[in-house]
């Protein structure tokens, strides 16, 4: 009698309320060409970024325009608000977590001033990528269209 091992599946929820788009639609080659990892992206409608899963915050830059977190099975996730937003040097961003914090899916990680960033010419496309793709066996992307932060599943990852 053989043993059957079930692969672990991790579901990631939308980190923003807005629209789910393909990563290839992001106007930044590093993300669109999946140089940083595969995933999805969002066009936010509100200025709040939430945790896509339970995990531990690995990195919050001083500019607070991005967050890296590690999910309990070791999946490493990068969330990046907008394009060229690092150039704002933190203006318009407020981190609500710090390195080492344990977070729950749906918990607010940072807020951002959409109007101020848009006025400065920032594209607010928000990628969510898995940076350690070697752990990914299969990646199922959610349906493009409207999503609610902390509720709608945007990615289902089957781990190796």
Overview of the molecule:
The protein has helices at 29-32, 114-119, and strands at 9-13, 18-22, 38-44, 48-50, 55-59, 66-71, 76-80, 93-95, 102-103, 108-112, 126-130, 136-141, 145-147, 153-159. It is built from two helices and 14 strands; from the N terminus they run ββαββββββββαββββ. The chain is mainly β. The strands form three sheets. Strands 9-5-6-7-11-3-2-13 form an eight-stranded antiparallel β-sheet, with no helix packed on it. A three-stranded antiparallel β-sheet has the order 1-14-12, with no helix packed on it. A three-stranded antiparallel β-sheet has the order 4-10-8, with no helix packed on it. The chain starts with 8 loop residues before the first strand and ends with a strand. The model has no long low-confidence stretch (mean pLDDT 95).
Concise synopsis of the structure shown:
With 160 residues, the protein is mainly beta. The chain has helices at residues 29-32, 114-119, and strands at residues 9-13, 18-22, 38-44, 48-50, 55-59, 66-71, 76-80, 93-95, 102-103, 108-112, 126-130, 136-141, 145-147, 153-159.
Keywords:
160 residues; mainly beta; eight-stranded antiparallel β-sheet; three-stranded antiparallel β-sheet; 2 helices; globular
């Amino acid at each position: 009698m053989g043993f059957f091992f079930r692969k672990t599946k991790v579901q990631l929820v939308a980190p923003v309320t807005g629209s789910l788009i393909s990563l290839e639609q992001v106007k930044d080659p590093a993300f669109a060409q999946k140089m940083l990892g595969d995933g999805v992206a969002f066009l936010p409608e509100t200025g709040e970024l939430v945790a896509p899963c339970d995990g531990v915050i690995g990195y919050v830059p001083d500019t607070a325009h991005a967050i890296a977190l590690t999910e309990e099975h070791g999946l490493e996730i990068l969330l990046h608000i907008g394009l060229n937003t690092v150039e704002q040097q933190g203006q318009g961003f407020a981190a609500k977590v710090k390195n080492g914090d344990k977070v729950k899916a749906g918990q607010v990680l940072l807020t951002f001033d959409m109007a101020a960033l848009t006025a400065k010419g920032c594209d607010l496309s928000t990628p969510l990528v898995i940076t350690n793709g070697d752990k990914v066996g299969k990646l199922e992307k959610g349906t493009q269209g409207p999503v609610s932060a902390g509720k709608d599943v945007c990615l289902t990852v089957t781990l190796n």
